[in-house]
Design brief:
CATH class of the largest domain: Alpha Beta
Largest sheet: 6 strands, mixed
Order of helices and strands: HEEHEHEHHEEHEHEHEHHEEHHHEHHH
CATH topology of the largest domain: D-Maltodextrin-Binding Protein, domain 2
Structural class: alpha/beta
Distance between the termini: 22 Å
CATH superfamily of the largest domain: Bacterial extracellular solute-binding protein, family 7
Number of helices: 16
Shape: globular
Length: 353
């Protein structure tokens, strides 16, 4: 399975790793800062999201403001609370900025969650660009109580299995698989698997003890949980097919803090937000797939492609999941079918047709 398009040079890897791994990461001390912003997220400082996205973003903001903005990056929920509270923490001023998953508040942000429907995602970069455009056009007041800097998704999830390869729905029958969200869990159930729901932090124990037969995650998380040692088979759709799933993310900023900043400093934030930030975040997740894949390859694990015709059968079989989502959007006053079709079209366009 070719992964050449995601290769990363040693020099590039060193540049990504350098700096920003302390927690909190205090950026921009060259001169006394006029504005200090607290950025809060759930993952440890060694995570690619912190190392390659959030800390570099903070550094860029500090540098482009001439040190007038200092961004303190608090990893691993250092400011307290739980991951599901990260958006509210920004709204309430506990943090100034956060990196959060709308799916942790099921049903509260249904438009942003639409990107989590099964078999929607292509690459993280293309789907992130599409999601940002979708929310700009249709997001309305879903995040009206914060100032949104970006939306994005992670790279498509894959099956990481202890023993059994997955190449068809028949292979899923009776297998206990940790589901990444309720929506894809329902899709797994339709396809014959037994979805299991528990925090990702408990996943490694579940795999080691045989409580689950596999899990659905992108390669990016492989190093953190040593999935290359806990699983022997990695299965994903054939190239050109839509991915299994992706979770959506939002980067909210406290609205009052944003509006109170001087115009020139607010312009620095604006220059480092929007669709290009969404693109950068998605692209970085795509690039980080390579490291996890290489670990699995070095372990001597097996790789299986799920044929495109089989993926089309899966997509048709799980159509009830999409239809229920459309009804839910309708019940909330949104044109459900139109919105799902719009996002699907934006992903197709961003992916090159």
């Amino acid at each position: 399975m070719a992964k050449g398009s995601l290769r990363i040079t040693r020099r590039r890897a060193a540049a990504l790793i350098a700096g920003g791994v302390c927690a909190p990461a205090l950026i921009g001390r060259a001169r006394a800062a006029e504005v200090t912003l607290k950025l809060h997220h759930m993952l440890p400082p060694v995570s690619p999201a912190h190392r390659d996205i959030l800390a570099p973003w903070a550094k860029r903001v500090a540098e482009q403001s001439g040190g007038r903005i200092e961004v303190q990056v608090f990893a691993a929920m250092q400011l307290g609370g739980k991951p599901a509270q990260l958006i509210d923490q920004v709204r309430d001023g506990i943090a100034d900025i956060s990196w959060a998953l709308p799916v942790y508040n099921p049903g509260r942000y249904p438009l942003a969650e639409t990107a989590t429907l099964p078999f929607m995602v292509t690459t993280a970069e293309a789907t992130s660009v599409a999601l940002h455009k979708f929310m700009a056009a249709y997001g309305g007041n879903e995040f009206a109580d914060v100032h949104v800097l970006a939306f994005h998704v992670h790279a498509p999830g894959k099956f990481h299995m202890r023993e059994k390869p997955i190449a068809s729905a028949a292979d899923l029958a009776g297998l206990r698989i940790r589901a990444p969200n309720q929506v894809f869990g329902r899709a797994l159930g339709i396809l014959g698997a037994e979805p299991v729901f528990f925090p990702v932090t408990e996943m490694a124990v579940g795999l080691a003890n045989g409580v689950i037969d596999g899990t659905c995650l992108p390669y990016e998380v492989v190093p953190a949980f040593k999935l290359q040692e806990l699983t022997k088979v990695h299965c994903e759709p054939q190239a050109g097919a839509r991915g299994l799933y992706a979770n959506s993310f939002v980067v909210p900023m406290n609205k009052a803090r944003y509006e109170a900043m001087p115009d020139d400093l607010r312009a620095v934030i604006d220059a480092n937000s929007g669709i290009e930030l969404s693109r950068f975040m998605g692209r970085t997740f795509d690039v980080n797939e390579q490291a996890g894949y290489e670990l699995c390859k070095a372990q001597g694990n097996r790789f299986v492609e799920i044929p495109r015709p089989e993926m089309e059968r899966w997509r048709e079989a799980t159509r009830p999941v999409v239809e229920d989502w459309i009804r839910m959007l309708d019940d909330k006053g949104h044109p459900g079918a139109e919105l799902v079709a719009a996002l699907d079209g934006l992903i197709t366009a961003a992916s090159g047709g």
